[in-house]
Amino acid sequence: TVFGGLPIVIFLGDFNQFTPVGGHAMWRQDISYTQVLQAGKSIWNRFDKVVFLTEQMRQAEDLLFQAMLERARSATLTEEDVAILNSQ
Q: Residue 68, Cβ neighbours under 10 Å: how many?
């Protein structure tokens, strides 16, 4: 896609996600057993500019929910968080 005359490739994802079931993530360094994975790794390694988005926009208006989601993501939910989630 072109943004302001600049070629941009956008990958979306959360690097804190669980690994794929029955396989390995393409970005892992120890993948070497199939031609398809080698091609994917080769493409991935060609990127020299990476931008990490750190600002949460989807829950920007609900800071309490946003904080709870961040705790869930890092496996640090409080007892109050669990009670709120279980009440829904």
A: 19
* C-alpha span between 31 and 77 (Å, rounded): 33
Other Cβ atoms closer than 10 A to 67? 13
pTM over 0.85: no
Percent of the chain surpassing pLDDT 90:
18
Secondary structure, 3-state, the chain: CEECCEECCCCCCCCCCCCCCCCCCCCCCCCCCCHHHHHHHHHHHCCCCCCCCCCCCCCCCCHHHHHHHHHHHCCCCCHHHHHHHHHC
